[in-house]
Amino acid sequence: MFSRSFAAAGLAVLAAGAVHAAPKAKAAPDARADALIAQMTLDEQIALVHGVMPALMNPMPAGTIRSAGYIPGLPRLHIPDLKESDASLGVANAGRSHDDAVALPSGLSLAATFSEPTAQAGGAMIGKEARQKGFNVLLAGGVDLVREPRNGRNFEYLGEDPLLAGRMAAASIRGIQSQHMVSTSKHFAINDQETGRMIASVELPEAAQRESDLLAFELALEGGKPGSVMCAYNKVGGTYACEHPHLLNDILKGDWGYPGWVMSDWGAVHSVDAANQGLDQESGQQLDKQVFFAAPLKAAVESGQVSRARLHDMVHRIVREMIAKGLIDPPDPGQLDTAKDSVVALHAAEQGIVLLKNEHGLLPLAASAKRIVVIGGHADVGVISGGGSSQVIPLNSVHFAPPKGAPPWGQGIWFHGSAPLKALQAAAPGAQIAFDPGTDPAAAAAAAKDADVAIVFATHWVSEAYDARDLTLPDNQDALIAAVAAANPRTVVVLESGVPNLMPWLDQVGAVVEAWYPGSRGGEAIANVLTGKTPPSGRLPITFPAALAQLPEPALPGADLPNETTPFDIAYAEGSDVGYRWFASRGAKPLFPFGYGLSYSAFHYSGLKVVGGRTVTASFTVTNTGARAAIDTPQLYLKTEPRRAQQRLIGWSRVTLKPGESRTVTLAADPRLLASWADHGWRIDPGAYALFVGSDAMTPVLSGSAKIAGSRLRP
Q1: 185 - beta bridge partners?
Q2: What sign for the dihedral angle of Cα 651, 656, 660, 661?
Q3: Which of the 8 DSSP states describes residue 453?
Q4: Alpha carbon 215 to chain centroid distance?
Q5: What is the 3-state secondary structure (H, E, C) of 411-462?
Q6: Which of 362, 366, 569, 576 is surrounded by the most beta carbons within 10 Å?
Q7: CB count, 10 Å around CB of 386?
Q8: Helix, strand or coil for residue 476?
Q9: What span, in angstroms and rounded, lies between the C-alpha atoms of 416 and 431?
C-alpha cells in the first residue's frame, strides 16, 4: 500500500506560512541594484565582497549566527546581512547547541529517487527551516559528478550522470529559493575527490569537461537559477578554480550568461587578482592566507589594478540576486516545526531506497516471519550520516568517535536517532524481533541460525576531507555478513553508505537493500520498505563496480603521497565517459549498473516509436504485470551517434501503476545530449542515432533509431 505522495506531503508541510503571495511589482533587479550601488561609498562596496566565518570567531560580531558565513549589510540602504549556512542535506549545526533541524537523506539517496518533485519539496523544506533560523543564503546545490567513487563527499552529490545531477540539483535549488533564499551551486568545477583537494590540478580536455561535469552545472543553472555559484578548491589545468578566467568569465558568465555572483569556497582565495579573473566574493576569509578582498582589494581599485567597473560588477551581482531572490523585506517564515518537516524527509528516504537483490521473494517480510533478528550497524540507536560541513544534527542524534585519519576539525560520526530496530518492532508487532550488536560474528551467526529472517545492517562512513581508500565495508563487516549468511540463507543486508560497496558475500545472502544515509526518519523509511508498507522504487544513480580494477583509476589519485603539501595532477583517463559510460565503453560488467533497482512487482515495455528531426523523441508503453501497485523508472539511452559510440542517459520517467495498468511514456532528448563539443560549440552530426529503452544502463529492452539533421548549438 502506498504512502501519500511525497509532493503532497511537501506541500502540506510548507502550507503554514511558508508560501506567500508575490510582492508588489518593483523595478527590475538590475536597475534597482545599480540605483543602490550609485549611493554606496567605495568602502561600502568593498564591505559586500568579503565575509567571515562566525563559527571561528569569539566573540562573534553583533547580529550574527554561529554558522558558516556572514557578510554585513548596509542598513542605511536597507540591504540585509548575508547570513549563510551549510545546507546540502538540511540546515547544518555548525556547533550551535540545542539547535533542532531535519536531516534530509543524502544526495545519492535523493538522486536515487529520479524524482524532481521530491528534490524540489526537500529544497523548499530546508529553505523554510533556514529562514526560520535566521539565514538567507544556503550553501547547498552540490552538482559535482561522482566521477571518483571513493570521494568522501559523494554522499552530498547527485550521481554520476550529468542529466540526472543537473535536473535534480535544479529542482532542489528551485525549492530552496521559493522560500526567499539564495541557493548556491557548487563546487565549480571538476571537484571530484577530497584527497589533495587544495593542491591537486585536474587535467581534462575542455570537450570532456563540457560533456560531463560542466554540463551538469549548466543544466542546474538553467533549471534552478541559483543566486550564487561557489568555486572549488582544486586547480583545473594548473589554475585555481577560484581565479580561473576561462571557467568563471568565459564559460560561466560568458557562454552561459550567468547573472549571479561567484563566491569562493572557504579558504580557496589566493590573490587580489582573483577579482579580475571572475571571483566576486571572498568567503570565510579567516581561512585564507590573508584577507585579499578587504584593504588589498581597495588599494587595487584605487591604483587601477582592479577597475571600478569590475568592482561595480562584483557588487551588482550580489545585490541583484538579493533583490531577485526576495532577501530584501521577506515575509515572515512562520515557526519551526521539525515534526511536520520530517514527513518530507521520511518520504524522500522511502523513495531513495534501492532493492538490489531479492531472491525467492524474501522481501517484503512475510507475515509468517515471527522470529526476526536484527544485527549490527547500531540499528538499535539510529541511522548513520555523512560527515563534514554538511553535517545536520537533529536533537535526538547520537555521537561516535571518528575513525583514524578523519579530519581533525570534523565532529565525528553522528547517527540520527531513528532506530531501524524500533521502527521494525512497530511495523511488525506480531513478530518477535531481537537485536545483536554484530561485534562478534560467531555470536551473531548463532543468534541468526534459528530465526525466520536475519537482517544485517552495515554502515560505511565517509566525510568531507575523508575519502574512502577502497570500497570494502570497514570494521570487519564483510566477515560478519558472511558468517550470518552461512548460518541462515534467509539473510537481508541493509547498507547505509556514502559510496558504492563491494559485496564478496552477495551470492550467499537472500536480499540486499541500499538505504544510503537515510536522514532524520531513515529508520522508519527502511522499516516501511522491508515490510512492504512502501514499495521499493529507488534506482542507482551510480555504478557499483565488481572490483577496483574496473575503475579508470584503480588506485585513488594522490593517496600514496606522504602529505597534503605536494602538488599532483589528476588526469582523468575516462574523459567524459563517467561511470556507466566507462563500463559501456569497455564492455565491462559491474556488480550493479547505473539505473538498476528491483521492485515488489514486475513491468513490461512495448510499442517503441522513435521520431527524429532536430532531436530524438521516443514513446513507449509501460505495463505493471505484477500483483502489487508499484513505481517504475524506465530510462532512455543513446547508444551510438554517427561519429562515435558513447552511451548517454537522455531521458527517464517515474511511473506509478496499479496491477495490470498501462501508461504511455513520451521522452524528448535535450539536443546537447546528442551532441559533441567541438570548435567552441555543440555539434550534432547528421545521420542515424541508435537508442534503447531499458530498466537500467545495461539492460536494453526496446531498441530503435532515428535520423537527425546536423546542426550547431550555442555554447
Answers
A1: 229
A2: negative
A3: E
A4: 15
A5: CCEEEECCCHHHHHHHHCCCCEEEEECCCCHHHHHHHHHCCCEEEEEEEECC
A6: 576
A7: 30
A8: coil
A9: 25
Q: 383: helix, coil or strand?
A: strand
Residue 12 has pLDDT above 60, yes or no: no
Neighbours of 430 (CB within 10 A): 8
Separation of alpha carbons 536 and 498, rounded Å: 19
DSSP 387: B
Q: How far apart are CA 18 and CA 219, in angstroms?
A: 27
Query: Measured between alpha carbons, how far is 705 from 711 in angstroms, rounded to an integer?
Result: 18
Cβ pair 256, 276 in contact under 8 A:
no
What is the tens place of the pLDDT at every residue in 350-386?
999 999 999 999 999 999 999 999 999 999 999 999 9
Distance between CA atoms of residues 578 and 598, nearest Å: 23
Q: Cell numbers 577502497 correspond to what residue?
A: 470
Q: Measured between alpha carbons, how far is 287 from 293 in angstroms, rounded to an integer? A: 13
pLDDT tens per residue, range 407-453: 989 889 999 999 999 999 999 999 999 999 999 999 999 999 999 99
For the chain, give the number of residues: 715
Set of cell numbers at residue 164: 540526472
Pairing label, strands 676-677, 69-71: unpaired
Residue 95 neighbours by CB distance under 10 Å: 12
Side-chain-side CA neighbours of 451 within 13 Å: the count stands at 31
DSSP 628-663: S-EEE--EEEEEEBTTB---EEEEE--EEE-TT-EE
AA identity, residue 339: A
User: One-letter amino acid identity for 564?
Assistant: E
Judge contact between 51 and 70, C-beta under 8 A. Answer: yes
